[in-house]
Design a protein that fits this description.
79 residues, alpha+beta, two-stranded antiparallel sheet, 2 strands, 51% helix, 18% strand, extended
Length: 79
């Protein structure tokens, strides 16, 4: 486990607990970061103990959760 993963886990646990969202089990964070030159990079960070297949499953489920409502929105002609 690296320090960044542990810090992310602690921060998410505190924030989610403060909003009564339950106990954090595991997480995948996908973030776009800007470096000092303004270059963009995609960073994928997981909480400690998340395997590659767990991360892939969580990400795929998240994508499907977004795609369904988005497709329904656009199919309905709403803008």
């Amino acid at each position: 486990m690296n320090e960044l993963s542990e810090d992310i886990e602690a921060a998410l646990t505190e924030v989610l607990g403060g909003h009564e969202r339950g106990i954090l089990s595991r997480a995948v964070i996908i973030a776009e970061l800007l470096d000092s030159d303004g270059e963009r990079a995609l960073s994928i960070i997981t909480t400690p103990g998340v395997t590659e297949w767990d991360a892939l499953g969580l990400c795929r489920y998240g994508v499907l959760s977004i795609e369904g409502p988005a497709a329904a929105h656009f199919a309905g002609g709403s803008e």
